[in-house]
Amino acid sequence: MEIRKLNLKDYEQIKNLSKKNGLPFLKENDWKNIWEKNPFILEQQKDWIIGWKLLDQNDQIVGAIHNIPFIFYFDNNKFLAAICGNWVVDNRYKSFSLGLRSKFLNQDNIQLYITNTANEISEKVMEAFKAKKILQYEYINRKIFLLNKKKTIINYIKKISLNKNLILDIKSLIDIMFNRKNLNITKKFSIANDFNLDFDLLNSDLRKKKTLYSIKNKKWLDWKYSRVINTDRLWVIKNYNGNKLVGFLAFVINNEQNYKLKKSTITEFSFLDENNFENFEMVKKCILISKEFNCDVVDVIGFNKFKKNIFKEIGFTDKKMSNFSFLVKNLSPEIEDVLFNSQNNLDMSLTDGDAIFSL
User: Fold this and answer.
1) What pLDDT was estimated at residue 42?
2) How many CB atoms within 10 Å of residue 217?
């Protein structure tokens, strides 16, 4: 058995390996664009290793792990993160899994190692390599707002009847059924299916805040959302004060496979002024657009305590997740407390890991 660097020519074998092991996989152009269009690789490190592959005696790929660069900011300081994606190994070769993970978690010049799609096995492995779960303020919970309550609840009940191990929080279900929040809005927002250069200035202002977040300029957002940009699956609600962009919310319309529901997933929610009531109205506008597109549910994963309270006040309800964990191995002492103790200075979401590429 041998571990080598992954390359873009390995697409077909990686796709077949993933599907064989029950994992969804991207189309070839979308998969290649993860690295070919990544701003960090294009501008600074063209020799970035895109991942590693495990080869059997016949030089066939029987395991793989992806390696994706992200940039984070905190207090105007930049941090390079390696995002783990698509860690998959054939059952016959599971004993070699740690070798792949070790390659990922022992790179040079990386300050953060992140996964936000960890299952129970990968959680244990990550923790063995000194990664820790982000537990503060409900990162283990999904927040949901039901638009089609009847369909959603029926589908949940059907799922329970097929899987006795699935537990639904009855109190949350009752809260959802009787949720009747006011969704009236007064602000007229700019609505788009893409990102413009105004996001560069917004990102410059966000960098000065004592909040750990992934870069939000046009280049990086274009890259993250390249699969859905300029389609009716991506919606960007932009809040302007005069000609200045002061906040935005982005969401992606997709399908919930487990419960067979159409949903909109809020992936970005950033603003300069926490006291601006229009932050609430951006969320309400997201709900209204989602309703127009016949979505059954709006869901949210991550974000800080302040933003979670906005969702809660509007009428979102918590739903526990079984296998969606944020795990981070941090090599930067100055942000250790932010990552694992702060409720408001850490602001991560689905967009801060490989989950963004599967919506």
Assistant:
1) 93
2) 19
Give the tens place of pLDDT for each residue, 243-281: 999 999 999 999 877 667 899 999 999 999 998 999 999
- The sheet with strand 317-320 has its strands ordered as 190-192, 234-241, 244-256, 261-271, 297-301, 141-146, 317-320
Residues 114 and 146 placed together within one structural domain of the fold? no
Range of the domain at 269: 141-193+231-320
User: How crowded is residue 103: how many other Cβ atoms within 10 Å of its Cβ?
Assistant: 20
Query: Where a domain ends, among 133, 158, 185?
Result: 133
Q: Is residue 225 part of a domain?
A: no
> Would the pLDDT of 201 be above 80?
yes
Q: Assess whether 85 and 183 both reside in one domain.
A: no
Segment 36-73, tens digit of pLDDT: 999 999 988 778 999 999 998 888 899 999 999 999 99
64 and 182 inside one domain: no
Q: Which two tokens stand for residue 275?
A: 């006291």
Asked whether 56 and 1 are in contact (CB, 8 A), the reply is: yes
Which positions ≥6 away from 16 have C-beta within 8 Å?
none
CATH code assigned at 272:
3.40.630.170
DSSP H/E element including 299: strand 297-301
Residue 84: phi and psi, rounded to 5, are -85, 135
